[in-house]
Amino acid sequence: GHVAVSSCGCHHSPSVGREPTSYHKADWKNLNYDMKKLDWDRIIGSHDPCESWEIFKTVLSKLCDKYIPKKSIKYQFQPPWFDSDCAKVLREKEKWRAKAIPQLVQRRITKNFDN
């Protein structure tokens, strides 16, 4: 039968220095296919829940590395979520800002002379 686990002393630390992944470009079909074809009874076997969890995470991590590409970060201070869509919107914003600033300056000059 199944055993409920409330706490087993498993400790995990967040990944440090990992490249951000590009989930929208992932090959989910093949990742799921490979997960389904694995013989989990043989892989996990009679390990305790903590060991089984660690084994599962290792297998899943290897498959994710295989099927989910990494994003490249071009600049040191660029956040992982800043992708090409964000860059496009930012360029558009800057274009409109460049058009608006001369108009704002002209209005201020005109307003100052009207007073």
Describe the structure.
There is one protein chain. This protein has 115 residues and is mostly helical. The protein is built from 4 helices and no strands. The chain starts with 27 loop residues before the first helix and ends with a helix.
For this entry, give a set of tags.
single chain, mainly alpha, disordered N terminus, 115 residues
What's a quick, concise take on this entry?
The protein has 115 residues and is mainly α. Helices cover 57% and strands 0% of the residues.
Q: Major β-sheet, in short?
A: none
Give average pLDDT, whole number.
78
Given as residue ranges, the uncertain stretches (5+ residues, pLDDT < 50) are: 1-17
Question: Globular, elongated, flat, extended or rod-shaped: what is the shape?
Answer: rod-shaped
Radius of gyration: 26 Å
Helical residue percent band = 55-70%
Set down the secondary structure blueprint.
Elements: H1 28-37, H2 40-44, H3 49-67, H4 84-114
Helix pairs in contact: 1-3
